[in-house]
Amino acid sequence: RAGPVEKSMNQISSEQYAQLGRDSFDARLIAIIRRNHPEQAAKMDFATLVGAFHRQAVKAQRYGLTDEHSAATYVYTAWLMGEEFDTRIPAVAQILADKRMKAAEKAKALANFSRLVFRTLSGGAANDAPRSAA
């Protein structure tokens, strides 16, 4: 018969586990930014970037974006659009403030909005428009 389970010296506390999760979240977001935006990422200080991520993650939580995917979508959108995108862009502010929308719906709306903005800026939206028969 096995005896009582003793706490291992290698066991981590819930606070340490949460910190590991934050570190992993930050590392994965930084990897995405470095992969997709290498020139901009090369100019950025790691500590400054992580600080910005944490500020944006807190804001994401206020909007109900508490799961990792929706929070990451919010943080990445803030990196692309600017830290105050949530209040500066009325359509985004309306989506984020909508209490009826689930986190996944808000994240999808943010991702779609970002794609639309950058497609439009690159001239892609004009290419997507239906062509009239002439």
Describe this protein's structure.
The protein has 134 residues and is an all-alpha fold. The protein has eight helices and no strands. It has helices at 14-36, 38-42, 46-62, 68-81, 85-88, 90-97, 103-121, 124-128. The radius of gyration is 20 Å and the shape is globular. The termini are far apart. Residues 2-9 and 126-134 have low confidence and may be disordered.
Structure at a glance:
With 134 residues, the chain is mostly helical.
Determine the strand fraction and express it as a percent band. under 5%
Kindly report the average pLDDT value.
Answer: 80
How would a crystallographer describe the biggest sheet? none
SSE class: mainly alpha
Report how far apart the termini are.
Answer: 86 Å
Task: Fill in the keyword field for this structure.
134 residues, mainly alpha, disordered N terminus
What topology does this entry show?
Elements: H1 14-36, H2 38-42, H3 46-62, H4 68-81, H5 85-88, H6 90-97, H7 103-121, H8 124-128
Helix pairs in contact: 3-4, 4-7
